[in-house]
Design goal:
25% strand, single chain
């Protein structure tokens, strides 16, 4: 199993478990009677995720559990279990320290807009679109989260407010940073304000 497929399975598991707490669907429409997320909810998820991981692996391997019972595929299966377990451990710790309700605004919400650019004297319309893994709210703050199954160094996505030119060069060479900038722009164009935090959660760092 390649890393992209492993990442997709982890995304699918988390989306299914967090979906009941999302206040909006993927199109941005409000859902009825959403709940806030608490550490107790994470404890429940810790008991539910193994069955979902198993289901997704069986789906990928045409319902043949022997295909991932040994070898590299088994290592991928165990890695998925381990990464999700470590993620929930950190998530629960963060929620306990937060000490206030966490609202999940949406999961995998599509945001899109257009911008006009003058290219060699000709005006071009550029379509921007992104699918935001998760948008949270707590207190008066809003944060955007992008999940990554690979390793992400904090220095690769951090910027210096006083060095705009350096930031632009960095964004041009670091795709992950540019992606976060685009998400922030899409959010502002959709909701009219800039989120307080735009960050990547890398499962590997746990």
């Amino acid at each position: 199993m390649n890393n992209n497929t492993l990442g997709t399975i982890i995304h699918t598991v988390l989306e299914e478990l967090y979906e009941p707490f999302a206040h909006r669907d993927s199109e941005g429409n409000k859902k009825p009677n959403p709940k806030s997320l608490t550490p107790l909810d994470i404890t429940r998820m810790e008991g539910e995720y193994p069955a979902i991981v198993l289901r997704e692996f069986k789906k990928h391997y045409d319902d043949d559990e022997n295909s991932f019972a040994t070898g590299k595929n088994h290592l991928s299966y165990k890695m998925a279990m381990s990464l999700i377990a470590r993620f929930f451990k950190e998530e629960k710790k963060w929620l306990m320290n937060l000490n206030q309700p966490l609202i999940i605004h949406s999961l995998e919400q599509k945001l899109e807009t257009t911008i006009k650019l003058n290219i060699r004297g000709e005006e071009k319309t550029i379509n921007l679109k992104g699918f935001i893994d998760r948008m949270d709210g707590y207190g008066d703050k809003t944060r955007i989260i992008d999940y990554k199954s690979g390793s992400v160094k904090q220095e690769d996505i951090s910027t210096n407010k006083t060095k705009v030119a350096d930031n632009l060069k960095k964004a041009a060479s670091q795709g992950k940073l540019l992606q976060l900038w685009i998400y922030g722009y899409l959010f502002r164009e959709t909701y009219g304000y800039i989120p307080d935090e735009i960050n990547i959660i890398s499962f590997i760092k746990y």
